[in-house]
Design a protein that fits this description.
DUF6199 domain-containing protein; rod-shaped; membrane; DUF6199; alpha/beta; about 240 residues
Length: about 240
């Protein structure tokens, strides 16, 4: 058991003891310093202080314990997310820092608009469906939704093309430059912003949520660009239990 775990265990025990201890024990170890010795009793103010401090320790231990439990749950979610998608938030980032596009405009054809470019879809998953790789749970998605990992760099997913066929599901995601694209020296290079250092790591993919008219089922998910079958996400390195 770690030092922190021992502390979380001992603090409420000490607090409970101070809260219920008999008044006769409140002067334990100090009676020899008092004139009345064994017959001395603590004042009402000291007894109130002792029990109040015990209550404080109990409340503080519950708050600390709750924060630790929430932190452990968040860490487990981050580990599972990273193990599933191959990328995830940094150690100091929350899971909701992952860029999720839960509402995206549909396109009527596979060709992007003039101000868009087609982005690479590196992987996909179907929420709540184990037949397409790992089972995922995303706060901003519902069961049956298709979730695409889109390599957009510094661009933003702007539209999606979906063609639902009998045996396949054809998808394509287009991206566009951010509104403040004047920052970019070259047109249509989705890369880290110039304010970032040249050694900065590549930006994490976007997760694009696509709501379908019918469940994916046994259909294959393929790219509209080259007809290649997209890769479902898998658990790469499952977090330790």
């Amino acid at each position: 058991m770690s030092e922190t775990s021992w502390l979380v265990f001992l603090v409420p025990v000490v607090g409970l003891f101070l809260l219920v201890m008999p008044r006769s024990m409140m002067l334990f170890g100090n009676r020899w310093t008092l004139k009345d010795g064994d017959s001395a009793e603590p004042s009402d103010a000291y007894a109130l202080y002792t029990r109040g401090f015990g209550a404080f320790l109990l409340i503080a231990s519950m708050i600390i314990g709750g924060v630790m439990i929430a932190g452990n749950i968040e860490a487990q979610k981050k580990e599972r997310f990273t193990a599933t998608w191959g990328f995830g938030p940094g150690s100091s980032e929350r899971l909701d820092s992952i860029q999720v596009k839960s509402t995206i405009s549909p396109r009527t054809g596979p060709e992007p608009d003039e101000d868009e470019r087609i982005a690479e879809v590196s992987a996909y998953a179907v929420v709540g469906d184990p037949s397409h790789g790992a089972v995922i749970d995303l706060d901003r998605a519902s069961d049956g939704d298709l979730v695409l990992a889109v390599q957009a760099g510094s661009c933003v997913p702007s539209s999606v093309y979906v063609e639902e066929k009998r045996d396949t599901l054809v998808v394509s995601v287009a991206v566009k430059q951010p509104r403040d694209s004047s920052r970019y020296r070259y047109s249509w290079i989705c890369r880290p912003s110039e304010s970032e250092s040249s050694s900065s790591t590549e930006r994490k993919p976007w997760l694009v949520v696509v709501r379908l008219d019918s469940p994916v089922g046994a259909r294959q998910v393929v790219s509209a660009e080259d007809g290649s079958t997209l890769t479902p996400v898998t658990i790469r390195d499952a977090p330790a239990a």
